[in-house]
Amino acid sequence: xxxxxxxxxxxxxxxxWEKVTGPLREAGHDVHPVTLTGLGDxxxxxxxxxDLETHIQDIVNTVVFADLTEVILVAHSGAGAPVTGAADRIxxxxxxxxxxxxxxxxxxxxxxxxxxxxWRAFIEERVAERGxxxxxxxxxxEHERAGASLEGLGEAEREWLVSRATPQPYxxxxxxxxxxxxxxxxxxxxxxxxxxxxxxxxxxxxxHPFFAELAGPxxxxxxxxxxHWPMFSRPEETAAALAALAG
Length: 247
Description:
Layout: E1 3-7, H1 18-26, E2 30-33, H2 52-65, E3 71-76, H3 80-89, E4 94-100, H4 117-129, E5 134-135, H5 140-145, H6 155-164, E6 168-169, H7 171-174, E7 188-192, H8 197-206, E8 219-223, H9 230-233, H10 235-243
Parallel strand pairs: 1-2, 1-3, 3-4, 4-7, 7-8
Antiparallel strand pairs: 5-6
Helix pairs in contact: 1-10, 2-3
């Protein structure tokens, strides 16, 4: 049996893992889906004071207060920054960090630093329209323009996602990630969905700035060929990919 802590990406709560947690638990694993402050059923806690540090502490507290050890800590998409920060704080409790359609930002980087200039301007405009505190879920057309693959998301999956999505606290995009190197040696796995593994390896070999760090010996790779939201489009395959990482 392994222990999983599942952290969803932007706009999502722990509910997003619903169809993944079932198969993992049926296989005997201990699974803890996380809803970060200001999102999902914790949307009432949203406010301008919610930032990246808040979300890092959410994850740390989930692990520490449940006294979890040998954790397989999973980040989807925008959860890469808080998961990286949490692993850096409590590496002694983490067995592996898994990035699903995600990756570890570098020390001192913000989420906005990872966006193209045009998309960054779009985000800033949308946030300003809401008073500066939150970033609402873009339309599907806007997601596609930003490069997010919608493969596998039928009408039912899209309706489910949109019906429960909540605005992302903007401070989580603007606060720099501060790392001390605590998690640098931890085993890490990239689960790629919208990029074929061959393309990922080619970008690592070429030194692409978003992929260069994945060249280290601590990295392994898996694929669930689908779009950017595999927990909705291929939940059983996503659960199987995570289960394959069990100790």
